[in-house]
């Protein structure tokens, strides 16, 4: 059941985000027909342009694969409202996330993170 709900959330959010042009073009992981290959290409292209113009180049890379696990649920709902998503939708998401726990495995032992 949660997969169906999550697909509906994604579909509605994606439509709202695209209609209102909320995401910057560099948000590759959030867009349809976008990939890490496109992100890598753009980074390399920017580096080569800078090097051709004899500019210094520095990069910081971080793996945000499981970043959502760290998102404060109240802040998430506040952001949704900030971007014009109001009414029952944020309330439904808040209800869906209420009393959720995160689990993770570290060296074959199960851990539970805090409830948000």
Main beta sheet strand tally, sense and closure: 2 strands, antiparallel
Tell me, rounded to a whole number, the average pLDDT. Answer: 78
Radius of gyration: 18 Å
Strand order of the largest sheet: 1-2
Strand content: 5-15%
- How many DSSP helices? 4
**Contiguous uncertain segments of 5+ residues:** none
Shape: extended
Helix/strand structural class? mainly alpha
N to C succession of SSEs: HHHHEE
Report on the architecture of this protein.
With 116 residues, the protein is mainly α. 47% of the residues lie in helices and 7% in strands. The protein has helices spanning 2-19, 36-52, 73-82, 88-97, and strands at 103-106, 109-112.
Please specify the SSE layout and strand pairing.
Layout: H1 2-19, H2 36-52, H3 73-82, H4 88-97, E1 103-106, E2 109-112
Antiparallel strand pairs: 1-2
List keywords for this structure.
7% strand; 116 residues; mainly alpha; 47% helix
Short note summarizing the structure:
By secondary structure, the chain is mainly alpha-helical. The chain has helices at 2-19, 36-52, 73-82, 88-97, and strands at residues 103-106, 109-112. The chain starts with a helix and ends with a strand.
């Amino acid at each position: 059941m949660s997969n169906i709900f999550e697909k509906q959330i994604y579909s509605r959010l994606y439509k709202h985000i695209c209609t209102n042009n909320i995401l910057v073009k560099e948000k590759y992981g959030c867009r349809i027909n976008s990939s890490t290959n496109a992100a890598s290409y753009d980074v390399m292209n920017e580096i080569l342009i800078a090097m051709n113009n004899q500019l210094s180049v520095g990069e910081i890379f971080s793996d945000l694969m499981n970043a959502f696990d760290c998102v404060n649920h109240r802040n998430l709902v506040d952001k949704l409202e900030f971007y014009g998503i109001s009414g029952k939708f944020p309330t439904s998401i808040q209800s869906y996330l209420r009393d959720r726990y995160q689990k993770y495995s570290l060296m074959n032992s199960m851990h539970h993170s805090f409830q948000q």
